[in-house]
Structures are given as structure tokens and as C-alpha cells.
Amino acid sequence: MTKKCPKKVKAVKAQPAAVGAAPTEASCPVSRDKTGAVTITVHAKPGSKHSSITEVSAEAVGVAIAAPPTDGEANTELIRYLAEVLELKKSHISLDKGSRSRDKLIRVDSSLSAEEVLRRLRQAAS
Predict the structure, then answer these.
(1) Residue 121, class by beta-carbon neighbours within 10 Å (0-12 exposed, 13-18 middle, 19+ buried)?
(2) Are the CB atoms for 54 and 81 separated by under 8 Å?
(3) How far, CA to CA in Å, does 118 sit from each of 4, 10, 38, 48, 53?
């Protein structure tokens, strides 16, 4: 009597997680998604004294947020601050992924190109 139960089939489970952890294709925190909207990968740092862009690295844009990470206050302040930096209305910027995480994906629905968004973020960081 032989059993035909596959054992240890889930050994490849670590590989898809590693692929999904790198959403940036061209090692740039600003890119375009399938719909044509500009997306920004953000590493949020809530609880700061004032909102500012701390760094623009290949992986993400570091943003210090002057709001506590409770009840979505930091997310609201992040969208308000990015709208100010990018000179857009708050309604043009939305939180796509990461509402309860420090690593977030911000969607920008405007006529700005990804290059222009990156330029404005770098200008605010300096």
C-alpha cells in the first residue's frame, strides 16, 4: 500500500515573496503603473516634528511625517504634504497600498510625468 501524498511541495514558498518585495523595476522610487498613473514608493517615518522629505533613494522616498501613526492621521498628513510638494490638489494623490505599513505606494493622478514628480521630490529633499 503506497500513499500518493506530496510532501514538502511548499519548499518554493520563499521565492514568490522575494519577487513581490521588489516593486521597482528600474531601481527608481517613481514609476508608472499599468493604467498610466505615476506611483511613488514611500517609506514613512511618522511622529516627526515637521513633515519633510528625508531622502530619495533607489528603493523609496523617505518622508518624515508630522503626525502620529494612529487613526490614519499620518496617512492624511502624508497625502497633504505630498500634494504641497508636488504642487497638486489633494484629490490627485491617493494611498494605493500600505495604509497600515511604513512602506506605502502612493498614486498620483495628474498630467505630471514620472520624471517631473521625481525632480520635484529631489528638489524638496535638498
Answers:
(1) buried
(2) no
(3) 55, 40, 10, 23, 12
Q: Which residue in 116, 114, 94 sits closest to 105, CA to CA?
A: 94
Give residue for cell 494612529: 70
* pLDDT tens, position by position, 70-109: 999 999 999 999 999 999 999 999 999 999 999 999 999 9
The grid cell for 18 is 522575494
- Cβ atoms of residues 126 and 56 within 8 Å: no
Give one DSSP letter per residue of 56-93, joined into a string: E-SS-EEEEESS-SSTTHHHHHHHHHHHHHHT--GGGE
At residue 94, what is the residue type? S
Cα–Cα distances in angstroms (integers) from residue 48 to residues 21, 45, 67, 82, 84, in the given order: 26, 7, 7, 15, 17
Mean model confidence pLDDT for the chain: 82
